[in-house]
Every structure is written in structure tokens, then in C-alpha cells.
Amino acid sequence: MHIDDRELDMGWNFDNSYIHLPKKLYTRQGPIPVPLPKLVAFNKPLAEFLGLNVNVLQEDSGVAILAGNKIPKGSISIAQAYAGHQFGYFTMLGDGRALLLGEQITPKGERFDIQLKGSGRTAYSRGGDGRAALGPMLREYIISEALHGLGIPTSRSLGVVTTGETIEREETLPGAILTRVASSHIRVGTFQYISAYGNVEELRQLVEYTLQRHFSDITSGEDRYLSLLREVIKRQARLIARWQLVGFIHGVMNTDNMAISGEAIDFGPCAFMDTYDPKTVFSSIDRNGRYAYENQPPIAAWNLARFAETLLPLLHDDEDRAIEIANEEIADFHDIYRKLWLDGMRGKLGIFGREPEDESIIHGLLDIMQAYDVDFTNTFRALTMGKLCGTEFFDSKDFVKWKDGWKTRLNKQRRPKEESEQLMRGNNPAIIPRNHRVEEVLEAAEKQNDYEPMHRFVRALSDPYAYSVGQEEYTELPSPSKIPYRTFCGT
Ligand code: AMP
Ligand code: MG
Questions:
Q1: What distance in angstroms lies between residue 176's CA and the mean position of ligand 1's atoms?
Q2: What is the pLDDT of residue 487?
Q3: What's the gap between Cα 310 and its chain centre?
Q4: Is the C-beta atom of 263 inside 6 A of ligand 1?
Q5: Quick check: CB of 257 below 6 Å from ligand 1?
């Protein structure tokens, strides 16, 4: 059968609404073909969800599309333009090594961007080669699926193909392309770009498009632009609270890596915190700890202020008044975030309702966890499982005293004990993608061409709240020689 005929069965159902935005927001461009594409990771549940045919997509004709060797029917591929503050400095950016194939409309009528990452040079590549290395693409695959399993809004990964090419970084590495799926790739940086290089009419078009695509609840009667700002702030507060509650460190929270949809995106050098320490930083390029664990909430507020600035011309005709309005909204971020985080911490401790002593119970635990250098995830896992003895930490006077206060609070609750345990299980993952495990499965894939450990790992991570026996091997801590852990952008 001819490839084109197979394509009909593949399930692609593209719309390309982004191209109706002002032309300066994108460049039309095709992917650069690669010599020898090979599918090494494929996300069947996601493919099914998107309405794609999982069998046909894994055949040569399907892989050709995931490799950028063939453009599927209905796709009008573009590189998106955006700007952004990188480590505090404003720069013109854009998809330098990615292309949007279009928006897949699912059988339920939902719309998702299908993006190839590593698909070759574009108008925005600057000095780069437009390519991506296998390791970082597999890493994004693992982490995005882990975040999704944790119930955190995130871009996802449909598959990874190796290209048969090598790319030059500090060493020579195998090239790869990730197919990324996201609600959209509209970033804070997209607004910064149009604000810096466009006019108010173009800004308004981007705003209207964003409202329609992500905030259809905002009605025409409201002050739409203020409502947009408010809603973006809320979603971002929710996202960051979820990160903090599982110890996720994004690693590079530049404004171009913050999606307006409220999904996690572009988490290149990210990693999960093991030992509880608010100052934890893993990324080798984050020398001053700008994006350390404890800084993620204030950095989100800083990024949101950059977003609010772009909306000023729409918030009020009088600029001073517009600034006042924006400032009031940004000032609310902290309270919104804190309330969500506190409620999340209550959930982690099996606490229903809100009592005045809750904050001191929560901080009391975190303080001693930090003093005793204990593992974040495993501590909450042990609390959930009621295994509270046999370690220096759990046998310490400090912990026993804290536990008494906690139990007193729990005993005050009318709800049955089982419900409280259930609440904890739903809020404390038994497993996270531990750094040494991520490295281990990446090494097997990259060096031995053995993808089985990665597939097994991804399967386990898809249900992190299962508390199954099979997950136990993934709860083990790294040997001391694997600490401190460093991540590299490795682009
Ligand atoms: P990232 O660190 O992946 O968020 O990328 C930051 C910016 O650099 C984006 O505009 C990317 O498109 C661009 N970029 C990263 N790697 C490459 C590459 N290998 N070739 C061209 N552009 C790149
Ligand atoms: Mg980025």
C-alpha cells in the first residue's frame, strides 16, 4: 500500500488556527529530513486519547511523520516566534529547533498542539543546529509522563525517534526528535514578543485567541482582559503549588518556559528533590539558585508580572491606572498560592477542614525534616503507610513530639480514620522519577540500546499513588556517590 493511503488510517485530524494570528507570530517552515528514523518510545495511551491509530502510527509511514520526513495531511507546519526573560534578561527567541505540525482535534473535540522538537533549523535558530540529543528527549518523555501520572497539568510526549544522525555538543551524541503534545505553546514570552514587536491591535488578537482557546468560561460581559490576567495567575499558582507538594524543580523557569494554559512546559534540566532542602538546585547553569525549590513561587509571581506588563494597554486607557490594576492582581498571587499549598499540605497529612494550628503542624514537620536531612517523598510515604520507627529521624524526640501534635489534630476529626488515610494516599506519591533511576534508564537506552528499563519505569510512574509491591524498587535512595546530583541542559 502506498504511504499516502496508510496516512488516511492514521487518525490525524489537524486544524491550524494559529496561522490566522498576525504573521509576525510565526514562520511557515517544514522539518529538515533525517536519514534513518527509528521509533524508540511510543505512548500508546496518549495516541489513543488523541484519536490516532496506534498500529499504523508505528509503521514506517507513521514514524516518517514523527521524524519530520513527511508532513501529514492537513498540517501546515510553523515555527512560533516568542521572546522571553532568560535568567532575568530579555531576549528574542522562538522555536529554534521545534515545529508545530498543527492542532490535533481529538474524537471528543479537544484541541492539542502537536510539536516536533529537534526537527531542524528554523528562522529562530540563531547559532544552533536545530537538533536535539537523544538523552534530553527521553528525559522529557519520562518526566512529562511522570508529571501527568502525578495529576499535574503538563505537556506530554507522544513518542521519540532517533534520527540516525549524530549531533555535536560537548561530545558527539545521537540525535532524536520528540513529539510533544500540549494544550498550546502560548507562553508568557509569546505575549512579551507581541508587546515588544507588535502593536495594540496585534496584542488584542493574541489575547482574543488565547481567551477562546483556553478561557472559554470568561464571557464577553466581563472585563475580559482583567479576567484573563486573574485566571492565568490562578492557574499558575495551582501549578506551582502542585510542584512544591511533590518536590518538583523545573530548573529553568524563564518566561518563555511558562505556558499561559497553566501546564508545565520546557522542563529541560528539571529534577525531583530527594533530601528535603528548600535551597535545592540541580541545574548546572543555575549558578545563583534563581530557580531553586523555594524560589519557584516568587519566580512565578515575577514571570506573571512580566505577563501583566504586556496587557497594560488593554487593562486601562490611563497607564498609571493600568499599572495599579496589574499590581493589585500580581499582589494576590502569594495568597492564592499559599492557600492552595496549605490545603495540599493538609491533604498530605490526612487533615480535613482548616484549623488554626494546621500551619504550625505543617511547618513543624518541614523544619525537622530539614534538620534531619530526610528524603521528602519517602517521609510522606512512610507517614501514609504508618511506618514510623526504625530510623534516626522517626525515633528522634523531635519527631515523636511532632507526631503527638499531629495525632491530636487527626483525632479531632469527625471523618473516619480510613478516609484520612485515603486522603494521604491520594496526595503522597509512593514513587517519583528519582534522579539516579532516571540516569540509570537513560544510560541503558543510550549506551546499550536497551529501552526496557525505561518503559518499565514509565509504566510504574503512570500510577504513582498505587502503593504497589512492584513499585518498591523505585523508592530506594541513591548511593552517596550519586550525590550531589547535577542536571545539564544538554540541548
Ligand atoms: P530551551 O532552553 O530549550 O527552552 O531553549 C531556549 C531557546 O533556545 C529556544 O528559543 C530554543 O528554540 C533555542 N534552542 C535550544 N536549542 C537549540 C538548538 N539546538 N538549535 C537551535 N535553537 C535552539
Ligand atoms: Mg524553552
A1: 14
A2: 86
A3: 23
A4: no
A5: yes
